[in-house]
Specification:
It contains eight helices and 14 strands. It has 268 residues and is α+β, with helices and mostly antiparallel strands. It folds into two domains: 142 residues, Fructose-1,6-Bisphosphatase, subunit A, domain 1 (Fructose-1,6-Bisphosphatase, Chain A, domain 1); 108 residues, D-Maltodextrin-Binding Protein, domain 2. The chain has a seven-stranded mixed sheet, with helices on both faces. The chain has a five-stranded mixed sheet with strand order 11-10-12-14-13, with helices on both faces. It has a two-stranded antiparallel sheet with strand order 1-2.
Length: 268
């Protein structure tokens, strides 16, 4: 197991986020990338500074960042070294528009597994994190306080759902709107933070049609550490060490996940 000082990682991420993201919040212009998503100066400089600091402290690692070319990402992900998987600004559209819901997402992948996940929300100064160590059980934290599974008896029709309609099929999106299987629905616009809010019990079920590795690697790891249940729409594990996009279905406890996945028609 690679020796990583979690407190040091947290300090690096939180310091750089406060220095580079907060002063630019709602004050930067943006450009369109080839896939139609937007990028700002804040994305680029935050990735650059985090990459420098992580390599300086752990020179035997490599970094895969959202703001790299696909060729660079592919080469990095195939490395035999531990791979930092970074989204320097998850929720860039929110950030540029002045909507206070965005985060830095960082995961460490080693031997095909995520062994550390960290998602930092600089607006609320909330740091969600978990680390897989061989000598102890994995525990997720929010600002040093443990996060535990919410074992309430909420049913699907009583639940608050985070659903990204944009990336669902028209048929599934229409069915959700028509049949209304949940009590209420939200879409906040930052996948990594969505996973962490789910882990913290701020919502009950989740649905997203297409996420990149850097969108879900850290948040999904933190969520699963709280004993939350998740799969793809095809009933597979969400996390795979690949650049191919993955769908995500999740719920805060097994009974609710069964009810949600049954409604969606997922066979596990």
């Amino acid at each position: 197991m690679i020796d990583i000082d979690t407190k040091k990682v947290i300090q690096i991420v939180t310091d750089i986020a406060k220095q580079e993201l907060l002063p630019r919040f709602a004050k930067v212009t943006h450009e369109l990338k080839h896939d139609g998503s937007i990028v700002t100066e804040a994305d680029v400089i935050t990735q650059q500074r985090l990459s420098e600091q992580l390599f300086r402290n752990w020179p035997d690692t490599v970094l895969l960042g959202e703001e790299m070319s696909t060729e660079e990402q592919t080469t990095t992900l195939s490395s035999d070294k531990p791979v930092w998987c970074l989204d320097p600004l998850d929720g860039t559209s929110n950030f540029a528009a002045g909507i206070p819901y965005f985060a830095v997402s960082l995961a460490l992948i080693f031997n095909e597994k995520v062994v550390l996940g960290l998602v930092y929300d600089p607006i609320r100064d909330e740091c969600f994190y978990a680390q897989d160590k061989t000598d102890s059980d994995v525990v997720a934290y929010l600002n040093s306080m443990p996060l535990y599974r919410k074992d309430n008896d909420v049913s699907l029709n009583q639940s608050i759902a985070i659903i990204d309609f944009k990336r669902l099929t028209n048929e599934l999106a229409s069915r959700i709107v028509t049949e209304r299987p949940v009590a209420s629905q939200r879409n906040f616009g930052a996948s990594a933070l969505d996973w962490c809010w789910l882990a913290a019990g701020r919502s009950h079920v989740y649905l997203h049609g297409s996420q990149n590795l850097w969108d879900y690697a850290a948040g999904n790891f933190i969520f699963r550490t709280t004993d939350g249940i998740a799969s793809t729409l095809d009933g597979e594990e969400v996390y795979v060490k690949t650049l191919q996009k993955r769908s995500a279905v999740a719920a805060i406890n097994p009974n609710l996940f069964t009810e949600w996945s049954n409604w969606l028609g997922i066979s596990g």
